[in-house]
Design brief:
alpha/beta, 200 residues, 4 helices, single chain, 4-stranded parallel β-sheet
């Protein structure tokens, strides 16, 4: 389907304005950065955001308070170390699915806070930092954070030994097939992920 949305970016690949004409947003591969407080026209139309392989950072408050946003997809094979800014997707109350790429540098404070319907997220082991309130009130603080690393590794990236007390953190020591299936993975995908975890 022809993309009728308008993506206004500067010569450095920074997206500065988005004019929405369709519910599915396909951020072009040429975009490397989303500006802080991105100017969005017709933001209530947005239901899905698909990021291209070029994305390196999403600015603070860039996509916050999108009332109908349900899904955010990053290209898994993106080779950039992605930085998600403070409150980048905060208060997207209908958001249910977030697929992060394999390389994530930082998930900053309140990035997904108050995304009440977000039941789980897979945090890549490449992640260097997760802000303390990054997932505040997600699924009423019952969000499952799936992390294919150890509890000690998780404590390092959150700079906290108490974050596990606030969320349902499932590290590789605890991860079971049932956890993955309950989080929406197919049996085949869940089984493959567990095999990879046991090899690591």
């Amino acid at each position: 389907m022809l993309d009728l949305n308008c993506y206004n970016m500067n010569k450095n690949g920074v997206l500065q304005e988005l004019v929405v004409e369709q519910p599915i947003i396909n951020i072009p591969a040429e975009v490397t950065k989303i500006e802080n407080d991105l100017s969005i026209i017709n933001q209530n139309m947005i239901e899905v955001i698909n990021f291209g392989k070029g994305i390196k950072s999403v600015g603070q408050y860039a996509f916050s308070k999108l009332p109908n946003l349900k899904q955010v997809n990053f290209e898994f094979e993106n080779d950039n170390d992605l930085v998600l800014g403070d409150s980048a997707f905060e208060c997207c109350s209908e958001l249910e699915i977030v697929k992060l790429p394999k390389n994530v540098d930082t998930i900053n404070t309140s990035c997904f806070a108050y995304c009440f319907k977000l039941p789980f997220i897979v945090i890549p082991t490449t992640t260097k930092k997760v802000g303390f309130w990054a997932f505040e009130r997600c699924n009423e603080n019952n969000i499952k954070l799936l992390f294919n690393g150890s509890e000690e590794d998780f404590d390092k990236i959150t700079n906290s030994k108490t974050l596990k007390d606030f969320y349902n953190v499932v590290t590789k020591e605890k991860m079971q097939l049932e956890d993955l299936i309950n989080c929406g993975f197919s049996f085949t995908s869940a089984n493959r992920m567990l095999i990879d975890i046991n090899r690591s």
